[in-house]
Amino acid sequence: MNCAQLSRRANELKKQLSEGQGDLRVVRYNLQNVYRELLVTDLEYALDKKLEQELWNNIFKNHISSLQAKVRDKMNPKRSELQSMLTLTLDSATGFFLQLLHELCSAFDLELPFCVKATRFGVTKKLRKRFQKVVIPQISSCLYICQYCLVHLGDLARYRNDNDQAHMYYNHAVTLIPTNGQPYNQLAIVSAGKSDQLSMAFYYIRSTRSNIPSQPL
């Protein structure tokens, strides 16, 4: 499908998701794949439509926040089941963003120290055919979307209470675009969780004094 067809499909799935039509797990899965296809094949178009934000919010953040709220309710009789569902959701989201990051590096021929391109492992004909359809974006857009993936990989690690891994992802994000304040803001959150007030203050100041100040995710 081309961008116009994928966009129409995304709108159909978003409507189903917002109205609770059908099996929402299937709807979310199909929608995340449409978003991924758009981000990889025509990144400039996807970023112009802010599809990376829709991907995070519609597919992952809203669902995760809902599960977290239910798990925190100690009176909920299904709390154990919901905790398992939350863990599975976090693992699935992490896998998705790792795969997306590798596909982006392969599609845009990026050499990042922390990301091995899928082509290093041998690319299937189907994947190679996909990459032939890619509209090559500006390098700034490539770095932005890779940083976006890393920040959310850090967020997902933080939701699992794995602050060391979260710190690692946020630091990788900083190296891509040091002038973007968002990774510093997330590092401040990690430092606050460790009661490291000095580091928290340092990262928070960096986030607000950056050329691109931190914005709510």
Description:
The protein has helices at residues 3-19, 24-41, 43-48, 51-72, 79-107, 125-132, 139-159, 163-176, 182-193, 197-209. With 217 residues, the chain is mainly α. The protein is built from ten helices and no strands. The two termini are 30 Å apart. It is 74% helix and 0% strand. It is flat and about 50 Å long. The model has no long low-confidence stretch (mean pLDDT 88). One of its GO terms (cellular component) is telomerase holoenzyme complex. Residues 50-162 form the Telomerase activating protein Est1-like N-terminal domain. Pfam families: EST1, EST1_DNA_bind. This is Telomerase-binding protein EST1A.
Which SSEs are present, and which pair or pack?
Layout: H1 3-19, H2 24-41, H3 43-48, H4 51-72, H5 79-107, H6 125-132, H7 139-159, H8 163-176, H9 182-193, H10 197-209
Helix pairs in contact: 1-2, 2-4, 2-5, 4-5, 5-7, 7-8, 7-9, 8-9, 9-10
